[in-house]
Design brief:
single chain, Rossmann fold, 2 domains, seven-stranded mixed β-sheet, five-stranded mixed β-sheet, 17% strand, binds nicotinamide-adenine-dinucleotide
């Protein structure tokens, strides 16, 4: 979760102002984009299992809808604040634009520790939240998806509540739902697959053969675990992996499936045979060609950036590199594929899910994966071209490209009235 000392919204606005200055945008446009266009904060009363009544606070913030309906996840976490949701909504606008999906950005959240709730309480919380959101969300308006501590089941409850309230089953109101309710094949793997494709494109861009490139992956969850498996299948050699407690290293290559199975069984990596133990901090500094931080934010800092030995960093997580570390990596000639590009595979396949729902026609997994591959390749090529043309980093180029696309749409549409 977001470090409490960092205000995500302030960070997002600072980033936007930097881009605005680089693109010489009209100050009024930067000011307009600094705000969410619509914000809703709701009180959510829930009858608890013990008979008591508790009231939670939830938000849904829509940053910008100029390119299409807004899109973004919903997180349940005790540290959720309005500013965190605002900042994440703005980042979603850029992420959706960089992979050229016809969406603006949004984000939602409830300040709650879902691990303290029973399943029934979680369902009542979700349903009342959805009710309170009312027509703020909708398949042509704003489409939620899972985020931290929410999943396909939470999306199924949202889908059901929205559908009951509107008297018509509306699968396209959420994405990331179970396949049997109109979810798409390939969604679970999408972010990890996108990371793998981004790594392939980055290697090509750097003039490297992907076959045999050594990879270190931090995090073994939905993003890191799947990226490691798919990268190994594509000829990369995964030499290091870790969860939140410890890691393993084998310069000759790890059997990703065996490491994953061991971690699942023991809920830890300590004692994994045939590999050296390594700390989570030490893992980031292992010799490798590609480093994939895919756990949490703020992992590569000014303190450890001088010791990173990778040639390419592919940001599977959101915000794993601090801004001062970014400068160190740039200085050392290490290429960084930024989060808004590298981990956009999830939102891209959410888009494909929504398209299938609207058509009521579902595709084979191979088709989803093929479209994701094309989408990621095109996005990488566009960002790399912008970086070369403007002589900036991939991160600056991705942000500039995204903001340019949004501003272009705003300019063409003009201002009402
Ligand atoms: P997850 O909860 O499935 O997995 C997180 C993994 O990171 C776990 O293996 C955990 O043990 C490890 N971890 C946690 N804290 C750590 C620490 N301090 N140091 C090292 N490892 C640690 O989460 P996920 O869905 O894989 O998401 C990972 C990151 O990717 C997050 O930043 C998330 O916002 C981002 N992201 C996820 C998706 C998605 O589709 N899941 C999409 C875009 C971005």
């Amino acid at each position: 979760m977001t470090n409490a000392t960092i205000n995500l919204y302030d960070t997002a606005v600072t980033q936007l102002r930097d881009v605005g200055a680089a693109l010489r945008l009209e100050p009024g446009i930067v000011e307009l984009l600094s705000h969410c266009s619509r914000e809703l904060t709701v009180s959510i009363p829930v009858r608890m299992d013990d008979g008591s009544l508790r009231t939670f606070t939830g938000h849904r913030m829509q940053h910008n809808a100029v390119r299409g309906p807004t899109k973004g996840g919903i997180r349940y976490h005790p540290a959720v604040t309005a500013d965190e949701v605002r900042g994440l909504a703005m980042l979603m606008t850029w992420k959706c634009a960089v992979v050229d999906t016809p969406y603006g950005g949004a984000k939602g959240g409830i300040t709650v520790d879902p691990k303290q709730l029973s399943r029934g309480e979680l369902e009542r919380l979700t349903r009342r939240y959805t009710y309170e959101l009312g027509d703020f969300i909708g398949p042509d308006r704003d489409i939620p998806a899972p985020d931290v501590n929410t999943d396909g089941q939470v999306m199924a409850w949202m889908l059901d509540t929205y559908s009951v309230l509107h008297g018509v089953t509306t699968p396209a109101v959420v994405t990331g739902k179970p396949v049997h309710l109109g979810g798409t094949l390939g969604r679970i793997e999408a972010t990890g697959r996108g990371v793998m494709i981004a790594a392939q494109e980055a290697a090509r861009h750097a003039g490297l053969q992907t076959d045999g490139l050594r990879v270190v992956v931090q995090g073994m969850g939905n993003v890191g675990g799947i990226a490691a498996r798919l990268m190994a299948a594509e000829g990369f050699v995964v030499v290091g992996m870790c969860d939140s407690k410890s890691g393993v290293h084998n310069p000759a290559g790890l059997d990703v499936a065996a490491v994953t199975a061991y971690q699942r069984e023991h809920r830890a990596l300590a004692g994994f045979p045939g590999a050296a133990a390594v700390t989570v901090a030490g893992l980031l500094e292992l010799p490798c060609d590609v480093l994939v931080p895919a756990a949490v934010e703020g992992q590569i800092t000014a303190a450890n950036a001088p010791r990173i030995q990778a040639r390419i960093v592919v940001e599977g997580a959101n915000g794993p590199t601090t801004p001062d570390a970014d400068l160190v990596l740039l200085d050392r000639g290490i290429m960084v594929v930024p989060d808004i590009l590298a981990n956009a595979g999830g939102v891209f396949v959410s888009y494909l899910e929504w398209v299938q729902d609207l058509q009521r026609f579902f595709w084979a997994e191979a088709e989803v994966n093929e479209r994701l591959t094309q989408g990621m390749r095109q996005a990488f090529a566009a960002v790399a071209a912008a970086a070369a043309e403007r002589n900036v980093t991939l991160r600056q180029a991705a942000m500039q490209l995204a903001v340019t696309r949004v501003v272009e749409a705003m300019t063409s549409r003009g201002l009402y009235p």
